[in-house]
From TrEMBL:
Superkingdom of origin organism: Bacteria
Coiled coil: none
Domain RNA polymerase sigma-70 region: from-to ranges: 20-79
Species of the source: Saccharothrix xinjiangensis
Record domain DUF6596: where: 194-294
Name of this chain's protein: RNA polymerase sigma factor
All copies of domain RNA polymerase sigma factor 70 region 4 type, residue ranges: 127-176
Gene3D superfamilies referenced in this protein's UniProt entry, alphabetically: 1.10.1740.10, Winged helix-like DNA-binding domain superfamily/Winged helix DNA-binding domain (1.10.10.10)
Keyword DNA-binding: no
InterPro entries: DUF6596 (IPR046531), RNA_pol_sigma-70_dom (IPR014284), RNA_pol_sigma70_r2 (IPR007627), RNA_pol_sigma70_r4_t2 (IPR013249), RNA_pol_sigma_r2 (IPR013325), RNA_pol_sigma_r3/r4-like (IPR013324), WH-like_DNA-bd_sf (IPR036388)
Length: 425
């Protein structure tokens, strides 16, 4: 008889241990794509076996052993006397044994070398986020092999068909193989460049979770939480990289406001109306500690660190009016020089409007309009409409807010925009 707790145990162990299992298999086989396939096969076998026979004493060791046995069979199929097969079989201490029998249920030894866990997981992160892959492929592969999410979960998070996610993952693995990307932590000279790609992927995942681009929910807490978990793992693996701690600080300080960003029915609550008593104080403390860690390096804050410093200004202020907006403006100016983008300029305009009034901010926004920036985004007309409302130019404001409504894909944000238009009379 099938035990439902067995399937729950499989899901829990996979979420916690999948990165280490895939990493260990990739180190043994030297093939990232094969390792991910082997881990998925072990997962499928566990979903059948554990509910029927019970959860083994060492679940991670069970999964890794099944994966390594499947690797032996895969190499045997390629070539009977393949050298890699011989090495793997010797590692398992079972000579020519095949995986035809049931895997051992009890594994007492640690299923991987504790001294190499960090190397394996770090190599996994760098491989999944390799610049040779498209942005969408990096996100999907990272959530799959590092985060332990299923294709269905990734598809649900990004509101795309499961088949699309599966195709991205398959294509990503083929691309890594064709480009002969090694499963290894990059050399020191290459690591800084590659680290930027890793941070970008984690930030993209969090951004989609914290401000959903489409759908009915304003915030996808699970997706944002996964990004925070990945950032914590990365901060543990590369503790001497200040920008990693800057990103972690940004995610923690931003997520701290989640409890107050939506009302009882999921409707958005703007910053000026949020009950700051509902902000997550523990997340604020973690975020400020991570930011302090980044500052201690003495190299100056990077782009993520500067954004974290801006988030800290909000986190420590008792109200919108009491926020140190001049400091926020300065931080956005520094961010604009370090990582120029229309979004940074738009956010700087908002800060300028709070520090010096809407008339001082409108030229910044008009400059973005003239440059054709953010053409397909609702953010630019939304901000311009807000400034025009504050300047009592209602007719112009209505045009901008209606344009923002037309471009906005998130139903919760559309509700807020409709309310602003209605308030104009």
């Amino acid at each position: 008889m099938s035990d439902p707790t067995g399937r729950k145990a499989v899901a829990a162990v996979w979420r916690i241990e999948s990165a280490r299992i895939v990493g260990a298999l990739a180190r043994h086989t030297g093939d990232f794509a094969l390792a991910e396939d082997l881990a998925q096969e072990a997962l499928a076998e566990a979903l059948v076996t554990w509910p029927r026979e019970g959860v083994p004493r060492n679940p991670a060791g069970w999964l890794l052993t099944v994966g390594r046995r499947r690797a032996i069979d895969a190499f045997r199929r390629r070539a009977t006397r393949d050298e890699k097969y011989a090495v793997l079989a010797r590692d398992l201490g079972e000579g020519g044994a095949s995986s035809g029998g049931a895997p051992p249920e009890e594994v007492d030894d640690v299923p991987w070398d504790p001294d190499r866990i960090d190397d394996d997981v770090l190599a996994l992160v760098f491989t999944a986020c390799h610049p040779v892959l498209s942005r969408e492929a990096r996100v999907a592969l990272t959530l799959r092999v590092v985060g332990g999410l299923t294709s269905d979960e990734i598809a649900k998070a990004f509101l795309v068909p499961t088949a699309t996610v599966q195709a991205r993952i398959t294509r990503a693995k083929k691309t890594l193989g064709a480009a002969r990307v090694p499963f290894a932590v990059p050399a020191a000279g290459e690591r800084a460049q590659r680290l930027g790609s890793v941070l970008s992927v984690i930030y993209l995942i969090f951004t989609e979770g914290s401000s959903a681009s489409s759908g009915d929910d304003l915030i996808r807490v699970d997706l944002a939480g996964e990004a925070r978990r990945l950032a914590r793992v990365l901060a543990h693996l590369v503790p001497d990289e200040p920008e990693v701690h800057g990103l972690l600080a940004l995610l923690e300080l931003t997520a701290a406001r989640f409890p107050a960003r939506t009302g009882p029915d999921g409707e958005p609550v703007l910053l000026e109306h949020q009950d700051r008593r509902r902000w997550d104080r523990a997340a604020i403390r973690r975020g400020r500690a991570a930011l302090a860690h980044a500052e201690k390096a003495g190299r100056g804050l990077g782009a993520y660190g500067l954004q974290a410093a801006i988030a800290e200004c909000h986190a420590v202020a008792p109200s919108v009016g009491a926020t140190n907006w001049e400091r926020v403006v300065l931080l956005y100016e520094a961010l604009g020089r370090l990582a120029p983008s229309p979004v940074v300029d738009l956010n700087r305009a908002v800060a300028v409007s709070m520090a010096r009034g809407p008339a001082a901010a409108l030229p910044i926004v008009d400059g973005l309009v003239a440059a054709g920036a953010l053409g397909g985004s609702h953010l630019l007309p939304g901000v311009r409409g807000e400034l025009l409302v504050r300047l009592r130019r209602a007719d112009e404001a209505r045009v901008e807010l209606e344009r923002a409504l037309e471009l906005c894909g998130n139903e919760r944000e559309r509700t807020v925009l409709r309310g602003k238009i209605a308030d104009l009379g």
